[in-house]
Amino acid sequence: MSKDIAPDWIAVDWGTTNLRAFAMQGATVLARAQSEDGMGKLSADQFEPALAALIADWLTADTVPIVACGMVGSRQGWVEAPYRPVPCTPLADQLTPAPTSGDLDVRVISGLSQAAPSDVMRGEETQIAGFMQLNPGWDGVLCLPGTHTKWAQLSAGEVVSFQTFMSGELFALLSDKSVLRHSLKEAGWEDDAFSGAVNDAISKPERLAARLFGLRAGHLLHGTGAATTRAALSGLLIGAELAAARPYWLGQNVAILGMGRQANAYLAALETQGVPAMLVDTESATLAGLTAAHRQSKAYS
Amino acid sequence: MSKDIAPDWIAVDWGTTNLRAFAMQGATVLARAQSEDGMGKLSADQFEPALAALIADWLTADTVPIVACGMVGSRQGWVEAPYRPVPCTPLADQLTPAPTSGDLDVRVISGLSQAAPSDVMRGEETQIAGFMQLNPGWDGVLCLPGTHTKWAQLSAGEVVSFQTFMSGELFALLSDKSVLRHSLKEAGWEDDAFSGAVNDAISKPERLAARLFGLRAGHLLHGTGAATTRAALSGLLIGAELAAARPYWLGQNVAILGMGRQANAYLAALETQGVPAMLVDTESATLAGLTAAHRQSKAYS
């Protein structure tokens, strides 16, 4: 089999549930590959074969540098890449080499930590670095929606502070596993129910706990539909998050790193508060961040 | 096999996960039986055989009246016993007969509903009725801890209003299914962490969303132990509930219907706010309520 693809380095985004790899020539993507060998499924000795299998077609006689970000660098990952405390630049020059038995040369990007309030991120620091590459000189607040949404304050090329919210995971647990699942069986989304719930939760955040079961009762007593209930649940959770994250967005320059439904929900929620935000594609940012890490750390090979 | 037990009626507490039956003579328990044939596991035609199997030893040639409360009366249960809107007495004279193919004579107690804010209960109305029987003339607020904790305002023998909170279910989902489970693996409980978190959530309820992931980060960065994390998670959720339920307990006469760890957590949380509460045994209240329903509805047989 001939080798059509000869990357000069390989970028790897290795999260809890997915493994994605990009054959790179400078900042250009030559090819991509992905599998479901996320960090959460692998034991320490399974990382090397999982990666080797995915990128086998891209390997040449010469060793190709590989730069990885995400949960692969956690304590339960391939190698622990120690947290770097904020305030700091999102990327360090130094990466952490992963132990390998063969020819792979893999370096892992460190996450960031904050002492008080206690917080950590892993993977998002690379997206933040990429966003900074793509928007040089930009100061403001970046919102990174996800299972664990992050809000990060950026200034003069550094991450000054950040805060994580579990709203995404809470939405998944409540809509899939709690008694509310019975009221959310059909698909759909009702914009007005969402913005109403956002406003309600922002103005009276202490009512969140009281409002949740009300969604179930509204369905039982008044036949409230799934589209309304789903949007209201999302609105309550994102509204409560905005109430807690107010110092991050009030009067700030805000960008949202994400393109899916969840990112659009954050955009709409911020709009209800009169806060415009810029939507930025996640993959571009991740690749720009991995590229920056690769360039910065040239010293290693 | 000789019949040692000859009840004049049978009390049944049939919830989502358990079925419990009591052979009764007036208000006296002659025998008890229980199984895991909860409403959640049964289809419509499985209720009658499940009950018949459990109480077979108690049945005589004469038909014995059976009174049941709980989720058995929901739309997904044996027969739908329609909600009664508050304000009203916790029990009506009229019970709903369950369809049977054999000799069982089963009547089901209705739940209560509230139009605004939307809310429902099923099973707790019987405990409330029993509490009223055991404490005649008592006016105040009853807290019924559970998967879905209820707060009910009682006055002059009626349930005036009530409110349901999902804090119990949220605690179970977050400690078993979310990323926080990694930080809660060992047993234990730290009282100070609990009361600190209660105070924090009551005084700044909008911070709940922000504090949850902080429990995970505190474990990763500072090695916070499981006993502290578990108590803090419980304290945050119950504190947020107390913030939302303030009109129910502030300056009120409060009783807590429950005896386990969860009931004691509510007692301790109310103590942090200077609110004394009386703890009342749930089973006594349930039986007193079923007995009252049986006596009130004598007309039916």
From TrEMBL, chains A, B:
One GO process term, biological-process aspect: D-galactonate catabolic process
Domain of life: Bacteria
GO molecular function: 2-dehydro-3-deoxygalactonokinase activity
InterPro entries linked to this entry: DGOK
Name of the protein: 2-dehydro-3-deoxygalactonokinase
